[in-house]
């Protein structure tokens, strides 16, 4: 089943809206229930002394309604906001709560090495930075999850059972499934589900607390316990209301999650073109003695995030995942219904870290590079193809081993970035090296000098992928190390007093990633629902693209017009060159990121029209398009090259 990234972003956004509506209805029902409970309690205390009849007239008392409403909103809303704020750190916080251990990028463990390799392949293929990987060492079940607010702060968690039991194709299918959740906007929805259900759950906890306190203070055993009965009834009623709220909340969670799981399964097949991979993983879950069960006590609240059903004891009504057999048959209609019998982990041999027998990497050839092919670039946003996965595997397989090894650990990752920024001109280069010798952390300068010759020989098309491989290691730096690292990057960029396209791209990717890894990025909200609402930033972006690809002013004007025509907006002219600096582009991208998904699609279509106006596309233009796409949270896979293509 083919999917469309922009459509799925809209679906995820509508899913969030539907979730908020259902949650609001649940809260309204809780408010009414709490008001009735309070009325009954107060009516009992205000009952007629002669007849003992409860005074139900308090039900319509506005003060009681206000008390019930404010109290419920304070508890439910406050509890939800507290939980969401607690998870503000993104996927890292959730992974640690689930017992995950960050896998060291320089690990020599063959199981972990294979897992990291598969994740890096999928990240490069999908045009995102490689997410940190967490191993759930104590979990024997076959399972995995993706968590975070956005692709730049996402993490992948994998159980030890999955890493050791699945073969490489099956593991790739599972990771592709999780990347679908990352790309289709499911992660933010999943975190909101955790927060909203936590708020409802607190109502029941308060009722349970009242019940316990009543018994501990002796109210339940007192000879005259009539005065305690209303309090006990209130506590019991709140516990029932909380239970009912959680009951319906779990139904909401299940309904929201199931269809997203079917979509992620189909996307995994689409990404890898190998149904046997993810189908094999699901079959092994069915035949494995521990299945996909996760033992961590925090697993129930995050059950909807996992690849397979993480908890047991719930009816199908509450299951956040479709039945296993149904998932398998949608992928493999010829399945005979038999599960392979697996008694313990370890059936899936780690095998080679990279794909065996990979052919020569086309991007490593010397000479003039062919033009990137932009024909399908927009349709592939958020939808990597098997060709992209193969490209990523070959790229990793043919990178210098020393560069890859360095990119996987914090010292080496900084050195790789510094080496990428070293100028070819001897004058600025001497200034850059002198600065690093004085300002870089211990050992990083020496590592930069060692790696520089290898990095200089890299094909221009692989420089940004190398940066993306290094990002997980950079995320492990302390705040002080990050501050010094960013200062050094700025100093290297400014050494020749000119910022080129690659330097701007690298800085922008680093800034977004560092902000996300330290919880400083704020999820964007849709503010612009038409291209007309973002005309000014669109004009800036298209003007920059026109100037980058055309030295002649008239050619730049024609390229701008080609792009603007796609938008079907009132005619507008090219912005003067002096007003189109990189800072203007940064501001434009911030505003364009606040546009609705379908508007972003038109933005990228206009950008492609502008770039291809001269019927020639350079590697630099192709990479700039990918950086722009990432800047508005529309990750674009590598633009594969075809000889003579445009």
Structure commentary:
- The chain is mostly helical and 646 residues long.
- It contains 23 helices and four strands.
- The protein has a four-stranded mixed beta sheet.
- The radius of gyration is 28 Å and the shape is globular.
- The two termini are 28 Å apart.
- The model is unreliable at 352-370 and 642-646 (pLDDT under 50).
Low-confidence stretches: 352-370, 642-646
Question: Strands across the major sheet, in which order?
Answer: 1-2-4-3
Mean pLDDT: 81
**Total helical elements:** 23
Question: What's the gyration radius in Å?
Answer: 28 Å
Strand coverage percent: under 5%
Categorize the overall geometry: globular
At a glance:
This protein has 646 residues and is an all-alpha fold. It has a 4-stranded mixed β-sheet. The chain is globular, with a radius of gyration of 28 Å.
Write the layout of secondary structure elements.
Blueprint: H1 5-45, H2 62-86, H3 91-97, E1 101-102, H4 110-126, E2 133-136, E3 144-147, E4 155-159, H5 160-165, H6 168-183, H7 186-216, H8 229-272, H9 275-287, H10 324-331, H11 386-398, H12 401-407, H13 410-421, H14 426-439, H15 444-456, H16 463-474, H17 479-493, H18 501-517, H19 535-549, H20 553-567, H21 582-592, H22 597-611, H23 619-631
Parallel strand pairs: 2-4
Antiparallel strand pairs: 1-2, 3-4
Helix pairs in contact: 1-2, 1-7, 1-8, 1-22, 2-7, 4-6, 4-11, 6-8, 6-9, 7-8, 9-10, 12-13, 12-16, 13-15, 13-16, 13-17, 14-17, 16-18, 17-18, 18-23, 19-20, 19-21, 19-22, 20-22, 22-23
